[in-house]
Request: fold
Amino acid sequence: MMWSMEKGYKFVYKIAAVVLAIAAPLTAVANESADTASSAAPDGKYIFVPDSLQKDVLKLLKGHSKVVDDESKIDASELVKWKGDTLNMQLKSRNFGRFDRGLSNYLFIPKGQWSFGLTASYGELSTDNLEMLGLLSDVDISGHMFSVKPYMSYFIKNNVSIGMRFGYTSAKGNINSFNVDIDEDMNFNLHDIMYRNESYTAAFTLRQYIGIARRGRFGVFNDVELAFSSGNSDFQRPYAGVLRNTHTTYMEAGLNFSPGVCVFIMKNVSFNLSFGVFGFYLRNEKQMENGEETGNRTTSGANFRFNIFNINFGIGVHI
Reply:
């Protein structure tokens, strides 16, 4: 069968038309995808972005600076579930001042939880052959203080707990040598001085937390404790060429205020940091020197100061 030239051209034209009809939609889709990618992605090098972060990254590329949630716009009526009950995420607090400062107290630890923990502190000071401006020389001073305080508490209200704390404290300091030479009329030398103290404490505590984050991981607290302690101490120093030792036994009651920070490092485990800054005390002590009773006194007072030896680190378990 013979084909004419005219019939051959018509057949080629029909094949070309079919190919163009199929390729045209595919080309349009590819061009549209390329335009979308080029408008969303910056020029230059590319990095891998997980699928879970794709929306956040595109939001950032379009000019939005906040990718994370904005917690400044929280619904005050938002609820959270705890042991089958629904609790308010944001706790209502009474304004005791003249101005409303807009502070929010978030639910940090709900009512009904038990907390068990242990706090400890350790401080140390040491110098060896220290000299300063020719006025102080041969300064050899050392000292350390250690305390451990187990506690248990129960949350009677949201973010408020009452409990008991027990403590053991041991401290010791030595002045092996301390020379002061300011002028001919003011110079002296201290040596062979030792102080030791050991005490046991039982305290009732009231702690109030303030949640500073909606997610309930960070909070600050104020710890108020009514403490009763007993202990003994020894003060040894040279007198008239002879070492003299004064032994003291005492009983003390105190009301102490200790602010701190609490961070949940696991679901039911928290890390605590607190330090004592203010307190009242009433103290009775008896002294004996070389085995003979020399005095008995009762003192009281208040202290308001930051004590480097009263910084406590602790771990708590909440159930």
Remarks:
- The longest strand covers residues 186-211.
- The two ends are 95 Å apart (CA to CA).
